[in-house]
Amino acid sequence: MAAGVATWLPFARAAAVGWLPLAKKTMPKPPVDNSSRSDEILYVNVSGVRFQTWKNTLDRYPDTLLGSSEKEFFFNEETQEYFFDRDPEMFRHILNFYRTGKLHYPRYECIQAFDEELAFYGIVPEIIGDCCMEEYRDRKKENQERLAEDSEANEGTDAPLPPDSTSRERLWRAFENPHTSTMALVFYYVTGFFIAVSVIANVVETVPCRPPKGSVKDLPCGEKYQLAFFCMDTACVLIFTFEYLMRLFAAPSRCKFMRSVMSVIDVVAIMPYYIGLVMPENEDVSGAFVTLRVFRVFRIFKFSRHSQGLRILGYTLKSCASELGFLLFSLTMAIIIFATVMFYAEKGTKGSTFTSIPASFWYTIVTMTTLGYGDMVPNTIAGKIFGSICSLSGVLVIALPVPVIVSNFSRIYHQNQRADKMRAQQKVRLARIRMAKKGTTNAFLQYKEDRGLGDRDSDSTALCVKNRSAFEHQHHHLLHCLEKTTNHEFTDEGTYSELCMTDSVGFRTSRSTSLSSQQGAQNNSTGCCPRRARRRAAIRLANSTVSVSRGSVQELDTLHLKTTSIPAQTRSSLNAQGVNLKLNCGEQDFSAAIISIPTPPANTPDESLPPSPVPIPGILRNTRATTFTHETVKISSL
Amino acid sequence: MGAVVGTLTMQTKQRRPSRDKTEDELEMTTVCHRPEGLDQLEAQTNFTKQELQILYRGFKNECPSGVVNEETFKHIYAQFFPHGDASTYAHYLFNAFDTTNNGSIKFKDFVMGLSTLLRGTLREKLEWTFHLYDINRDGYINREEMTEIVRAIYDMMGKYTYPAIKGDVPQQHVDAFFQKMDKNKDGVVTLEEFVVACQEDETMMRSMQLFENVM
């Protein structure tokens, strides 16, 4: 119901007294209205900007946030006002809606921001007043189109294929997106080259060459070097045929593919050759055959797969079909009118070129498009007058639909530009996201290490702690709990992929190495994860010093164990005390989900550990593994 | 050449605002009626100052010009009864409120009507209702007038009712009404007959009390 109707409701209810004499039954009890009768001024504080309004104003729309009891959630007892942490500029419009009953859309605002505000305050956008509705709808549609394009570009075709796609699917993808694989790219360029060759051959074979010995007349090159041209043509057609058949095979929907424009162009490009082969060398039909050769020029349209500009032009023409149709129709009308007039104007003169109305069509077209060849010229005065009117009107008629076509082209072109820009930005964005994720991981790992220290060395931790917000602390704690729950640990991409590599190579490795020159102590093992619960394989393959093979004794170069006195600077790999590595058991599957934690970028790169581990001073403080060379440290895997 | 001209003309795609709307707007806003002072209205009606303020704020918001004409009134009333056609009844209601009979309700009419309906004595309410039914203001309610009113009320119900409204239901209703009200059976109901008959009607008196606190 509209706003003001609420104002009139008491009036309508009062007027219901008029029904009472007619009523056959007693009236129902009226609803009890507990709200205070008197109106009061409410204070609404939106990000510091204070608005005041009557309570009744807000009550007009009871199904919105401000009109219902939902606003009580935002009531601030101390200041006795409703506080909203939102945009005060937009709130102005929202409040005006309550006051006037009309919602206006401010043109300078972003459509999404506006929508979000409306959603927050519980107002449906459909009630935007007529004055602003068109603008709102246009902007919204534009935004949605842009989002759709973006999502298309995102999920697009550059994404890697699922690994279990058939060869057919792979082939199709290779055809549609040549830059996904080198083979496809090679094929793409080869076909492009052959299209160019074919087109050039078609052109060149009509150029007159020097006549062969014994003849005076100039011969077109096509006839002089007939065999050469024929071989070139055959080669091109073979390539095109092969390509077409491959596409047909790979297409997910063959019927749809055969109906598509590109497929038709392909067929038209190669058909003349085959028809020429089939047809006999007959004088009668060779005329038709010659006409067929014209179709070979359609091979140039095959370039549209290679050129985006050509495709854009095609789309433009398709989208302006109605304007083009109008142009054609109006031109036809004008041509007929002027041709008739010119014919009758010039009818009398001797030697006039305007022999018939269809003949005058030619004059009219040439004049209206301001070409003016001059092969047909009016001689009478009337003819000249009408001729000039014809040329002036031609300019106007042609100028009319052109702006529409141009603006369509511009729009489509910009859309394409935007898609390309999006794709380029996407890469940057993904890289940024990856970096941010890595940053978070590193921060988390840093946190763990700090926490490890925290129990022993409060001074240094205090320093580190100060630099992190409460939010980060809680977040890290949460991640930590997750680790404990799943009995796995977070690590970064690099070490994980390395781990995968080693796994695939067949090594059952569980060589934990230190990933940093300095050690950090890992404290968390004592509490929750005693000996058997660890499933760690800290592998560091930077220099591939792992020489672990199945069944062999594991040599763990550096087991970083808890050490209390080592200042925490970097990460350590995580094998705590009492962790056994049983690598001889082949049946135990070593799911190397946990990898040692990499160092934060600031730190020095990891050492490579020699196969025969030399105890690195300061690293191993654990009594259990002083000389690792001879001890098999067993890490039990679950 | 045509293309050049075309691109040049493409630049000027601005829309020109229409000029002829402003005259209409001027006309509408020149008619602006202000009510009498707050004190006078308070004296004439049974409302307090606060209540009058609230009422006026709502009224002014809806009708900045200060008057309600019949079309607007019908439109507003129709919003309350979307199922059926409230225009006929709204017309009668409008006439009942428009005591000065000039085709528009000013704030004073509005508030006096409300005062009668909500804060008036029983007799005042019954008189108001009588004037509502008495379409031609001749002091008598005859069958035709009553039939009109009843039909208008049934129109507001709309088509989809349970049980379905058959053709002669309004007529029966009118007959029942006249049977109750028309004591001397002369075919018309006068004000006195109306008042007396209503006061005897238990149902109605009970209902009347319920409407005390609508506002």
Automatic annotation (TrEMBL), chain A:
<comment type="subunit">
    <text>Component of heteromultimeric potassium channels. Identified in potassium channel complexes containing KCND1, KCND2, KCND3, KCNIP1, KCNIP2, KCNIP3, KCNIP4, DPP6 and DPP10.</text>
</comment>
<feature type="transmembrane region" description="Helical">
    <location>
        <begin position="385"/>
        <end position="406"/>
    </location>
</feature>
<dbReference type="GO" id="GO:0008076">
    <property type="term" value="C:voltage-gated potassium channel complex"/>
</dbReference>
<keyword id="KW-0813">Transport</keyword>
<dbReference type="InterPro" id="IPR005821">
    <property type="entry name" value="Ion_trans_dom"/>
</dbReference>
<keyword id="KW-0407">Ion channel</keyword>
<keyword id="KW-0732">Signal</keyword>
<dbReference type="GO" id="GO:0005250">
    <property type="term" value="F:A-type (transient outward) potassium channel activity"/>
</dbReference>
<comment type="similarity">
    <text>Belongs to the potassium channel family. D (Shal) (TC 1.A.1.2) subfamily. Kv4.1/KCND1 sub-subfamily.</text>
</comment>
<dbReference type="Pfam" id="PF02214">
    <property type="entry name" value="BTB_2"/>
</dbReference>
<keyword id="KW-1133">Transmembrane helix</keyword>
<keyword id="KW-0812">Transmembrane</keyword>
<dbReference type="InterPro" id="IPR003131">
    <property type="entry name" value="T1-type_BTB"/>
</dbReference>
<feature type="transmembrane region" description="Helical">
    <location>
        <begin position="324"/>
        <end position="345"/>
    </location>
</feature>
<feature type="signal peptide">
    <location>
        <begin position="1"/>
        <end position="16"/>
    </location>
</feature>
<feature type="region of interest" description="Disordered">
    <location>
        <begin position="511"/>
        <end position="530"/>
    </location>
</feature>
<dbReference type="InterPro" id="IPR000210">
    <property type="entry name" value="BTB/POZ_dom"/>
</dbReference>
<keyword id="KW-0472">Membrane</keyword>
<dbReference type="InterPro" id="IPR003975">
    <property type="entry name" value="K_chnl_volt-dep_Kv4"/>
</dbReference>
<feature type="transmembrane region" description="Helical">
    <location>
        <begin position="183"/>
        <end position="204"/>
    </location>
</feature>
<dbReference type="InterPro" id="IPR021645">
    <property type="entry name" value="Shal-type_N"/>
</dbReference>
<dbReference type="InterPro" id="IPR027359">
    <property type="entry name" value="Volt_channel_dom_sf"/>
</dbReference>
Automatic annotation (TrEMBL), chain B:
<feature type="domain" description="EF-hand">
    <location>
        <begin position="85"/>
        <end position="120"/>
    </location>
</feature>
<dbReference type="Pfam" id="PF13833">
    <property type="entry name" value="EF-hand_8"/>
</dbReference>
<dbReference type="GO" id="GO:0005267">
    <property type="term" value="F:potassium channel activity"/>
</dbReference>
<keyword id="KW-0479">Metal-binding</keyword>
<dbReference type="InterPro" id="IPR028846">
    <property type="entry name" value="Recoverin"/>
</dbReference>
<keyword id="KW-0813">Transport</keyword>
<keyword id="KW-0631">Potassium channel</keyword>
<dbReference type="GO" id="GO:0005509">
    <property type="term" value="F:calcium ion binding"/>
</dbReference>
<keyword id="KW-0106">Calcium</keyword>
<feature type="domain" description="EF-hand">
    <location>
        <begin position="169"/>
        <end position="204"/>
    </location>
</feature>
<keyword id="KW-0630">Potassium</keyword>
<dbReference type="InterPro" id="IPR018247">
    <property type="entry name" value="EF_Hand_1_Ca_BS"/>
</dbReference>
<feature type="domain" description="EF-hand">
    <location>
        <begin position="121"/>
        <end position="156"/>
    </location>
</feature>
<dbReference type="GO" id="GO:0005886">
    <property type="term" value="C:plasma membrane"/>
</dbReference>
<dbReference type="Pfam" id="PF13499">
    <property type="entry name" value="EF-hand_7"/>
</dbReference>
<dbReference type="GO" id="GO:0034702">
    <property type="term" value="C:monoatomic ion channel complex"/>
</dbReference>
<keyword id="KW-0677">Repeat</keyword>
<keyword id="KW-0472">Membrane</keyword>
<keyword id="KW-1003">Cell membrane</keyword>
<keyword id="KW-0407">Ion channel</keyword>
<protein>
    <recommendedName>
        <fullName>EF-hand domain-containing protein</fullName>
    </recommendedName>
</protein>
<feature type="region of interest" description="Disordered">
    <location>
        <begin position="1"/>
        <end position="23"/>
    </location>
</feature>
